[in-house]
Thiosulfate sulfurtransferase, rhodanese
Amino acid sequence: MGEKYTMFSRYILFALLLFSSLYAMPSLVSPQWLAKQIDNPHLVIVDVRDKKAYEKGHIKRAVNVPVFEYLFDTKHQYSMPKLDTLQKLFSRIGIDQESKVVVYGDDVLIWAARFYWISKVLGHDEVALLKVGYGRWEPSLLPKSTKSFTPQRSVFVPHINNHILETKLSTYIAMHKEIIIDGRPPAFYKGLKSHAKRFGHIPSALNYPGSQNYDLNGSGMKPFSVLKKLYSGLPKDKKIILYCEDGADAALNFLVLKELGYDVSVYDGSWLEWGNDDNLPVEK
């Protein structure tokens, strides 16, 4: 009896795992995928463009969360908002544990990727990035609206995933031990340009710009088969810490590398914190 019960329990567990794998939210979705899900009552669509662009036209039922107003701390512009602020935001836009979230922005996909990564930090894994910028599909494919959408409030309960979040201290300790990737353009990495008071990069960091993940002509994310070759030189048996200027390029690198099977986290303070701290080492 005990052996039969054990076998039955294993069968149920296997079935549940198979079911979850089949219906788990993909990290990237196409407009065609979204069109098939558009009437899903658990679907939450987030538009991170500014209010002016949103009011000109957006996907129907998309809620506007302008990235620079809501996804950076008002006091420390280089870090994400405080936990209680994010909890209130996610509740206000209708996200709960059953929500399937799709986020989009313009052709520069890094800003939508920041919302994606923050959702992951808050423990909401059912989130996907629309692989193209707004409007890069046949006009009849997705419903469009110019009216602001106010979703029904929810009660969002965050569960912080500290494994994918790094601090200034943890990044400092990781230098020359773990892999650190700088997601800024080469000119910033080499110290030719900087938005911080100091120039250069974190010692031992490698340069993989976030812009390499998508086509700048507006066709969206590159296929994972192409990106796999781009990152093929990175080992999968080491933790990888990602940073950029403000955490946006790093967020897109996070999505890609996580999908490719790497163990990755993001130093949210990024260069705007590190580059303005005279006590931290810099390399050029």
Remarks:
- Confidence is low (pLDDT under 50) at residues 12-22.
- The first strand starts at residue 28 and ends at 29.
